[in-house]
Specification:
- By secondary structure, the chain is of the alpha/beta class.
- The chain has helices at about 45-50, 80-95, 105-110, 135-145, 150-160, 170-185, 195-200, 220-230, 245, 250-265, and strands at about 5-10, 15-20, 30-35, 55-60, 100-105, 120-125, 205-210, 235.
- It has an eight-stranded mixed sheet, with helices on both faces.
- Helix 3 links the parallel strand 5 and strand 6 (about 120-125).
- The longest helix is centred in the last third of the chain and has 17 residues, at about 250-265.
- The radius of gyration is 17 Å and the shape is globular.
């Protein structure tokens, strides 16, 4: 896939990004993709390649997450820190109007940022709207994964995040999560953003998407909150859990493309 990898200096440290696709036409938004907790640009390349066939895409490695950006995390006001960081990166790495697509933690970061460059948000199983639930079986799989990592324990953990009977967890993802547990200190999900901040975000069109079997953000809880707090359009992907970028990349691609086209039409 033809692409360019670059780095930009920010108040959160050096940020790595990958850009693919043609320059946007005048007034057309580009896409900025924010991966979720423990993920990065390298794990999103299939979706980036598909999106880049129709528009310019920039995918960022979040600081404080496993990837090529700075590793530091703030002790307080984490989401305000991320919001400022994203505004700085947009100015340098993706100038012009942008639709920000964020998965999980990446969705909360998209909401935390009030940059005027953001003309739309697509939030995939997004944190920041409601408090994430952690079912007991998922917690029981998380502890062994952290204490004594292995590929088998990564598979067990990811299996609780994915839809039941959906074809299993991709091999590259279980190998990656094993490496993360051995090499990194995972971060916790952020709490919901304040109602007053979410009220401000209603000014920009938002599409919220979750999987039918998402254990953290079940549709019957996330949907009403997204509509009430953000005035967002809400959609559910059947046959998917929390790992939307891997479980339902075609559905995510189609919804994101349709949303970007609608934003471009105004």
């Amino acid at each position: 896939m033809p692409h360019v990898r670059g780095e930009v200096a920010t108040s959160a440290g050096v940020t790595s990004f990958v850009t693919a696709g043609d320059e946007p036409r005048e007034g057309e938004p580009s896409v900025v993709l924010l991966p979720g907790t423990n993920m990065n640009a390298a794990l999103c390349l299939p979706l980036v390649g598909a999106l880049a066939r129709g528009r310019r895409v920039t995918v960022l490695d979040l600081p404080g997450q496993p990837g090529l950006s700075a590793c530091g995390r703030p002790r307080v006001r984490r989401m305000a820190w991320y919001g400022q960081w994203l505004g700085e990166v947009l100015e340098s790495a993706s100038p012009g109007p942008a639709v920000v697509v964020g998965h999980s933690l990446g969705g909360a970061v998209a909401l935390a940022c009030g940059s005027p460059q953001i003309v739309g948000r697509v939030l995939l199983s997004s944190a920041g709207v409601i408090r994430l639930r952690v079912p007991v079986p998922l917690l029981a799989a998380t502890i062994p994964w952290l204490v004594r990592p292995s590929v088998a324990r990564s598979v067990a953990l990811l299996g609780h995040m994915a839809a039941p009977g959906a074809g299993g967890v991709p091999g590259h993802l279980s190998t990656w999560m094993d490496l993360v547990a051995r090499s990194c200190r995972t971060s916790l999900a952020p709490p919901p953003l304040s109602a007053s901040l979410l009220e401000q975000r209603r000014a920009v069109p938002t599409l919220v998407i979750t999987g039918r079997f998402d254990p953290f953000l079940p549709p019957h809880v996330l949907g009403p909150a997204a509509r009430h707090l953000l005035g967002a359009e809400f959609r559910v992907v059947e046959g998917a859990g929390h790992l939307l970028l891997d479980e339902a990349s075609d559905a995510v691609l189609a919804m994101a493309e349709g949303f970007c086209a609608a934003v471009a039409r105004g």
